[in-house]
Structure formats: structure tokens, C-alpha cells
């Protein structure tokens, strides 16, 4: 305030001139009372002063509660005792178990001899992965008895030898159809699924088979040696072998029920 303005101030009896200056200054700065009205407006604004504020605050509270619940759940999961997977025992993995709340799961057996010899061969037939030949022989240990089993020992019934992988979409797609056919023909033929390392491993295969409720026999080719002998170029690959042990049909790629049944008929003739 200028000195002239100060000197022209109206003296109010009983009020010190300095207080008059302060009052005058306030009025000069806010001649229309806007400052005072804004201060009153600020005092009137609360958390729930408008519907938008109420909705925003409610959403924030729900979000915070959700975060708290999720954090508590994660802490609870972290505190649970993890499943344990003991190391595979023996050459065939028949001693491997997976400890779960549902019980113990036995790993599928490994093929322990990819070049097993035939004890007998029909005259004039060679061992080769092609129609009209004997399928390359191999050996594994029976999952239940631990006794050695060879492909040759399965003679007497038609065999569907299926190379597959848990990670293979066409393999997974054809397995439910295979299960239906196996259930219908059970006792009249043998299905044998061969998974391969290193992409698959015996315990993971056993878990996949259990979850899918697949009930035919499964074995594992740990080093893909048998796959190499069969010259498998793509999976799934299926070899349809007749009861005498001769390959009657080969199908590479996913198969529907009709393809499987047609090729099985060739092996059943």
C-alpha cells in the first residue's frame, strides 16, 4: 500500500491502524469476495461430495481389497509343501515315483535296448520300417512286473505302434479317438505308445497319460534311438503290425477314427 493511501485511511475508533491496513489490503486484493467464497467451497468439498467421487473411492477400496486377498492367497500357496520328484531309479525308470496328494505315480518305463535281436523271423522277411517287413525290435521292462518285454513278444495280436509326444498338438488330438477304439477292441489288439527324449521324460509322460485317462501301454525312448531306427520323420507316426509281427500299414500325421480303423483292418486280415 502506498504512503498516500495509508494516510488517507479512515480511522476506526478502537482499532489500531495496522489492523485497518490488513483489512483494507484483504479487500483490495479480493474486492468481490472471491477468495472468501473459494475458501468456503474448499471447506464444503468432501470425499463423497459428488457421485463421481463416491464411485471412484468405492472402486479404489475394492481394488485394494482384491490386492490384499491375492497377496494372502499367494503367501498361502508359497507356504504349502511342494511336490517332490525323486531321481529315476534303475535303467528303466520303474522305481521312479512322483509324490503327490493323490498318491504315488509310477513313471513309464524306458526302452533299455533299442536293438534287441529277434528270436525267430519268418522266412524271407527282413527287419525294416516299411510295409511288408518286420518292425525293428526293441526291449523294455514291464511296468507292473519288471520283466523284460520285446516288440516281438507281442505277436499273436495286431499291434498299433504309435510314436507321439506330450507337446505335439496332432498327437493329443488323435488320442481320444484312439482310446474309444481301444476300449471297443480291448483284448483283441495291443496299443503301444512311444514317447521320445529329450523333449519328453518318463514321469511327465505318466502324468499326461493319467490326466487323459489313456489306458493302453506307454513306454519311453530316452535317446530317440528307436525313433531313428524307424526313420520317423514326423509325429505322430503309427505302424500297424499284424498278429504275425509284420507291418501292414504306416500313417504319418494325425489320424481320425476312420483312418485308424481302416489301417487296423489291414493289420487284422
Describe the secondary-structure layout.
Blueprint: H1 3-7, H2 17-29, H3 34-44, H4 51-79, E1 97-100, E2 103-106, E3 111-113, E4 139-141, E5 148-150, E6 159-163, H5 169-185, E7 190-196, H6 202-212, E8 217-221, H7 225-229, E9 237-241, E10 247-252, H8 257-268
Distance between the termini: 118 Å
Estimated structural class: alpha+beta
Helix residue percentage = 25-40%
Number of helices: 8
Outline type:
elongated
Question: What portion of the residues fall into strands of 2 or more residues?
Answer: 15-25%
- Poorly predicted runs are 19-43, 80-102
Q: What does the main sheet amount to?
A: 5 strands, mixed
Number of strands: 10
With strands numbered from the N-terminus, the spatial order across the biggest sheet is: 8-7-6-9-10
Rg on CA atoms, Å? 41 Å
Mean pLDDT: 79
Compressed to H and E, one letter per element, the order equals: HHHHEEEEEEHEHEHEEH
Q: What is this structure, in a nutshell?
A:
The chain has helices spanning 3-7, 17-29, 34-44, 51-79, 169-185, 202-212, 225-229, 257-268; strands spanning 97-100, 103-106, 111-113, 139-141, 148-150, 159-163, 190-196, 217-221, 237-241, 247-252. With 269 residues, it is of the alpha+beta class.
Structure write-up:
Helix content is about 40%, strand content about 15%. It is built from eight helices and ten strands. It has helices spanning about 5, 15-30, 35-45, 50-80, 170-185, 200-210, 225-230, 255-269; strands spanning about 95-100, 105, 110-115, 140, 150, 160-165, 190-195, 215-220, 235-240, 245-250. The longest helix has 29 residues, at about 50-80. The chain is elongated and about 95 Å long. The termini are far apart. The model is unreliable at about 20-45 and about 80-100 (pLDDT under 50).
